[in-house]
Amino acid sequence: MKYRGPRVTIFTDGSWKGKWRTGGYAALITDDRGNWRLVGDGMANTTISRMELSAVIAGLSCLYDGCDVSIIADSMYVVNIINKWAKMWTKNHFTKTDGKPVANVDILTHLIYHMHRMSRVKAYHIKSHTGYTDTQSLGNEIVDNFAVQQAGVAYGLEYPIQLQSF
């Protein structure tokens, strides 16, 4: 099911088990009508950066074109890419200011494609594991737990859980 908006909030998080080199990601998509959807997956031989970006892509790919999107992430890497670096890197052909190539260009191009489909995408940073019970903190805890679970599934430690929105 795709969301039509107009205003959508996506909570995102990635998880990485360095010892096993597996990771997981999760995105909780909510709209201004009270609808929600939790998506995620895990994979082997990955990095935390790729998992953080995969979470955003998974969330954006669930939306119709033209949505006004707020991304809530505990990763400053994600926030900076969305709010600052994506536009600059695209203009500079994925070269950083020091002349070195940007890492993860393959996944960044997917992210930028989905960002361009939306009317607006703005990212906001949230501190993780605060124990607070406000909506943003709870959203972050949900995606953190689901991403960790997905990393465990990718390694074969856990069984996948299936969630349905209602």
What does this structure look like?
This protein has 166 residues and is an alpha/beta fold. The chain has one domain: Nucleotidyltransferase, domain 5 (2-Layer Sandwich). The protein has 4 helices and 5 strands, in the order E-E-E-H-E-H-H-E-H. It has helices at 48-60, 76-91, 105-117, 135-155; strands spanning 7-17, 22-31, 36-44, 68-73, 120-125. The chain has a 5-stranded mixed β-sheet with strand order 3-2-1-4-5, with helices on both faces. A hairpin with a 4-residue loop joins strand 2 (22-31) and strand 3 (36-44). Helix 1 runs parallel beside helix 3 (105-117). It is globular. The model has no long low-confidence stretch (mean pLDDT 88).
Give a quick summary of the entry.
The protein is an alpha/beta fold. The chain contains four helices and five strands; from the N terminus they run E-E-E-H-E-H-H-E-H.
Layout of helices and strands, plus pairs?
Elements: E1 7-17, E2 22-31, E3 36-44, H1 48-60, E4 68-73, H2 76-91, H3 105-117, E5 120-125, H4 135-155
Parallel strand pairs: 1-4, 4-5
Antiparallel strand pairs: 1-2, 2-3
By CATH, the superfamily comes out as Ribonuclease H-like superfamily/Ribonuclease H
Number of domains: 1
Number of strands: 5
Question: Helix-strand pattern, N to C?
Answer: EEEHEHHEH
Overall, the morphology is globular
Q: Mind telling me which CATH architecture this is?
A: 2-Layer Sandwich
**Uncertain stretches:** none
Determine Rg (CA atoms, Å): 15 Å
Mean pLDDT level: 88
Helix content: 25-40%
- Give the CATH class: Alpha Beta
| Spatial separation of the terminal alpha carbons | 12 Å
- Work out the strand percent: 25-35%
Distinct helical segment count: 4
CATH topology: Nucleotidyltransferase, domain 5
Strand order of the largest sheet: 3-2-1-4-5
Largest sheet: 5 strands, mixed
Derived from helix and strand composition plus strand pairing, the structural class reads: alpha/beta
